[in-house]
């Protein structure tokens, strides 16, 4: 009888421990929460991060593309309606947040909401952008903070992406291809923001990409050109080039910041430096490739992938949409068959491009053995890349470790 009672007591304690793991309030880092479900190991020149808690019944584990320097974010969904978000910092223990379900959001929606983007604010709170699990439902933006019993604020709408505008009074711009842009101030704790809808004008019927240039201004690449908005001056527009270049699959315009400069790409193979008001400063071809280069065709297809803090622009080859009757001798088909596993980097202050083939990079950088080589996810503004491995494990490494080489004529 004593053995039965002892076994029952152990079971209750074990069950209670699991319940507390699932329900515990977010209190900070692994240093004071040893039950964090992740294990972080140094794997030079980066870190191997893995989900290592076999007690939690997972519904989904998602790793987000890094967007901010020194930060990586993961979403953990269990069989309950709890949403856990973990923020990893280079060289430090991660922070686990149990995100409370915002008021007015149903359990069914919250259970299947997919974290699309996350940004950490200077005060330690985290902006979270969730996409719905069911088509037709609105998206959800939440501002959460460690240790809080409820979300600081939340808003729903047709947006699918976001960007932050800095300054003393920051703001987040929420947008999608359809519908208005939503500007939400991000005030301090205890304050609730007053969102503002910014209706799109006829010159900008939809948004391909948006870049905040401040807390009250942004640039927007659209199918018809480049548009700029500021709270003080409203909208202004620049028409896209008449020559659209080689047709590419799923092409969209883009606008990025590199160092202190802003760049707009409307067509493959060319970029334009622009001012905050959207006016074009200079239209350039980023370091044309030599004709004898084996990848010379890449020059006509360079697609802007982002900019880094040193002012350099990053590109990857776009996939051409060339009809078979416009491809004599199958030259484009042969080029495509060779694969597109390479990336380019260009410093506007210097001539020429730098190139990196991912297969070559992995042979030199050497990620952990259980992380298979491939094309990683990266946003150059973050200064890091993410390479996914077996279920629940990734390799997170600095871009400075990549062995780029100048492209030179033979």
Describe the structure.
- It is a single chain.
- The chain is mainly beta and 410 residues long.
- Among the domains are: 158-240; 243-364, no CATH class.
- 10% of the residues lie in helices and 40% in strands.
- It contains four helices and 31 strands.
- The protein has helices spanning 2-23, 107-112, 331-337, 358-365; strands at 28-29, 38-43, 46-51, 58-63, 71-78, 83-89, 92-99, 114-120, 126-131, 139-144, 153-157, 161-165, 171-175, 181-185, 196-198, 209-214, 217-222, 225-230, 234-239, 254-258, 261-265, 271-274, 280-284, 302-307, 313-317, 342-346, 353-357, 377-379, 384-388, 393-398, 405-406.
- It has a five-stranded antiparallel beta sheet.
- A hairpin with a 5-residue loop joins β24 and β25 (313-317).
- The longest helix has 22 residues, at 2-23.
- The chain starts with a helix and ends with a strand.
- Residues 1-34 have low confidence and may be disordered.
Protein topology:
Elements: H1 2-23, E1 28-29, E2 38-43, E3 46-51, E4 58-63, E5 71-78, E6 83-89, E7 92-99, H2 107-112, E8 114-120, E9 126-131, E10 139-144, E11 153-157, E12 161-165, E13 171-175, E14 181-185, E15 196-198, E16 209-214, E17 217-222, E18 225-230, E19 234-239, E20 254-258, E21 261-265, E22 271-274, E23 280-284, E24 302-307, E25 313-317, H3 331-337, E26 342-346, E27 353-357, H4 358-365, E28 377-379, E29 384-388, E30 393-398, E31 405-406
Antiparallel strand pairs: 1-7, 2-3, 3-30, 4-5, 5-6, 6-7, 8-9, 9-10, 10-11, 12-13, 13-14, 14-15, 16-17, 17-18, 18-19, 20-21, 21-22, 22-23, 24-25, 25-26, 26-27, 27-31, 28-29, 29-30
């Amino acid at each position: 009888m004593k053995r039965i009672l002892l076994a029952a007591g152990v079971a209750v304690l074990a069950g209670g421990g699991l319940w507390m793991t699932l329900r515990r309030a977010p209190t900070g880092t692994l240093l004071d929460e040893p039950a964090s479900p992740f294990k972080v190991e140094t794997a030079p020149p980066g870190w191997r991060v893995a989900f290592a808690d076999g007690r939690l019944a997972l519904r989904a584990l998602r790793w987000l593309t890094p967007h901010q320097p020194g930060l990586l974010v993961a979403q953990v969904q269990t069989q309950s309606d709890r949403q856990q978000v973990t923020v990893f910092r280079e060289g430090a223990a991660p922070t686990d947040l149990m995100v409370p379900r915002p008021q007015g959001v149903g359990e069914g929606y919250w259970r299947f909401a997919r974290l699309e983007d996350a940004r950490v604010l200077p005060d330690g709170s985290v902006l979270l952008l969730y996409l719905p699990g069911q088509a037709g439902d609105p998206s959800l933006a939440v501002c959460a903070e460690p240790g809080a019993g409820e979300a600081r604020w939340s808003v729903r709408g047709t947006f699918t992406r976001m960007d932050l505008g800095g300054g003393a009074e920051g703001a987040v711009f929420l947008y999608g291809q359809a519908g208005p842009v939503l500007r939400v101030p991000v005030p301090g704790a205890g304050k609730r923001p007053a969102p503002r809808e910014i209706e799109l004008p006829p010159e900008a019927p939809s948004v391909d990409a948006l870049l905040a240039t401040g807390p009250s201004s942004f640039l927007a690449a659209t199918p018809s050109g480049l548009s700029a908005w500021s709270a003080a001056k409203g909208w202004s527009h620049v028409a896209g080039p008449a020559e659209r270049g080689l047709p590419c699959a799923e092409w969209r315009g883009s606008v990025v910041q590199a160092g202190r400069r802003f760049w707009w790409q409307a067509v493959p193979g060319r970029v334009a430096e622009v001012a905050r008001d959207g006016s074009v400063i200079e239209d350039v071809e980023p370091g044309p490739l030599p004709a004898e280069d084996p990848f010379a065709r890449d020059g006509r297809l360079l697609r802007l992938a982002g900019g880094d803090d040193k002012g350099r622009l990053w590109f990857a080859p776009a996939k051409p949409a060339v009809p078979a009757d416009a491809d004599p001798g199958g030259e484009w088909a042969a080029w495509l068959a060779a694969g597109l596993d390479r990336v380019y980097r260009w410093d506007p202050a210097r001539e020429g491009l730098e190139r990196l083939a991912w297969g070559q990079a992995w042979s030199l950088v050497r990620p952990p053995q259980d992380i298979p080589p491939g094309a990683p996810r990266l946003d150059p503004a973050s200064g890091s890349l993410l390479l996914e491995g077996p279920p629940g494990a990734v390799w997170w490494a600095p871009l400075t470790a990549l062995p780029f080489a100048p492209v030179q004529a033979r």
